[in-house]
């Protein structure tokens, strides 16, 4: 999975599960301030991500996530090299 | 306590026969039916395949985000609140929003969410349950989303008395206003019960009409061949204001919410007390609180569900409470057109009651070609009836034995 694939995946998760606008979901967007996401949205997003990568995420790792770029990084860290969606 | 007069200053009905005050009035007076083949959920294996359904116009339809995070219960309620505020000519930004309350009754809460969660749990276990499940499903979400949308931070709450929830919400709002807890209250009811579980449940109780012809003919209150109610979704919010608050902004009000009466059956969880004793006491209390006598009543908007038991008990209650006037007062049932929208019904019918005052016209009960010969009341059938309307009683009688009667008079 490369960076673009990961960003597309995050965008799909946030539009499908949270009803957010795709064009707002850019790497630099802050999830709370720019996208208006709350703690319930975060739980839904993390569940969808965990389902995607097939493993539970470390709470400390999730804690640090603030922007879409941070989510993309988490996804890339946990995806096997070369794995496709 | 010397209470202020409580005025109705805005109407926001969201029903299968009309959305918004004007459309809903036209729907009533032209004999529309909101009942059709079920589309909100699959009818496979269910005992009935019809329901009263609402089509929200595009400008009131939920956004993608709202669809993802809230139940249809919230969507119907927000549409009703928007319509009611517009009808009242109220701009939330100009109000002291700490003095604005919200009360929305809902009988069954966010049922679409309950159905979806049940399926997710059955297939995926606890981890498949959405973090939004509880806030989407809880009955008070309807009131909460209105409070959050507009920043109304006076008293905000919900009433849960099944099919009297909407009427009870109006009572709660009345009390908030006369006790000066708020100056303005958005009050009403909402239910989005077109769920497979709810349809199955009412079906198992044999409460639903089994009519299998034209869906528009299925809801038959007071008819000799009535065989149950038709489930519906819907919402209605009314803007209620103290007379002082309305006057200060130059509003005269559409009607006075002159009083209410409540009494319980204390008899059976679903069956009404056959003589309608609790309902009669509620009617009597509403008359007293509104300072009316039976001869003052110009229209009764009946609970009129079309179940054999409800309609019979309601007729008995009207005979007991109104005495000789019972056979003189025009009676009709809005549910003959809308179906039964549970917790929304009392509020939808409050709107119809106010509109009868405004237009001096009593809408007709649909499908009432042959009233039950045992009843003998003055049912308005066929065409709406023009008559002087100065005081209206609106009945809501619920599973659980909750009887609520609202009284409206000219402003």
UniProtKB/TrEMBL annotation, chain A:
Post-translational modification: 4'-phosphopantetheine is transferred from CoA to a specific serine of apo-ACP by AcpS. This modification is essential for activity because fatty acids are bound in thioester linkage to the sulfhydryl of the prosthetic group.
UniProt superkingdom: Bacteria
Cellular location(s): Cytoplasm
Start and end residues of each Carrier domain: 4-79
Gene3D superfamilies the UniProt entry points to: ACP-like
Keywords: Cytoplasm, Fatty acid biosynthesis, Fatty acid metabolism, Lipid biosynthesis, Lipid metabolism, Phosphopantetheine, Phosphoprotein
Record-linked Pfam families: PP-binding
Pathway: Lipid metabolism; fatty acid biosynthesis
Main location: cytoplasm
Modified residues (O-(pantetheine 4'-phosphoryl)serine): 39
UniProt record similarity statement: Belongs to the acyl carrier protein (ACP) family.
Function: Carrier of the growing fatty acid chain in fatty acid biosynthesis.
Protein known as: Acyl carrier protein
Species of origin: Micromonospora echinofusca
Gene: acpP
